[in-house]
Structures are given as structure tokens and as C-alpha cells.
Predict the structure.
Amino acid sequence: MKNFIKAMDDLPWIVKIILSLPVLDLIWAIYRIIKGASNKNILMLVIGILWIVFGSLSIFWIVDLVCSIFFRRPIIFA
């Protein structure tokens, strides 16, 4: 799990932007779930699960896209 988290954190900026697009945003939801489980952070785990259900279907992917552009990483929430 730590390897996946480190790999996602070390991705180039443009790849993070591409992964923030609809449907591909599912990868950031999985990242949140794994990071939440790894850090024993229930809030991030729940948000990751909710992001899978609602992320690509709503405007949540836009939030990830904007945060990836301006902050160079998707919004994590915790």
C-alpha cells in the first residue's frame, strides 16, 4: 500500500491532471481509500468510498481537476 501511495504522490503534474478527468477520477477515489486505510483515517476512507459512488457522476471530478491544476494534487480532505 505504501508503494502505491508513494507512486501516486510522485506522479508528474500533467498525469495528475489527466487522472482527474471523469471516469479516470476513480483512480483518485481508490487512492483515497488506500491512503485512508493505510493511515487509519476513517474520514478519508469514507470519502474515498463516496467518491467512487458519486465522483465521476457529479461535479466532484471538477474539484479534483481544479485542485490538481492549482495545488498539484487532488483534494484529499484529511
In short: The radius of gyration is 11 Å. Residues 23-70 form one domain.
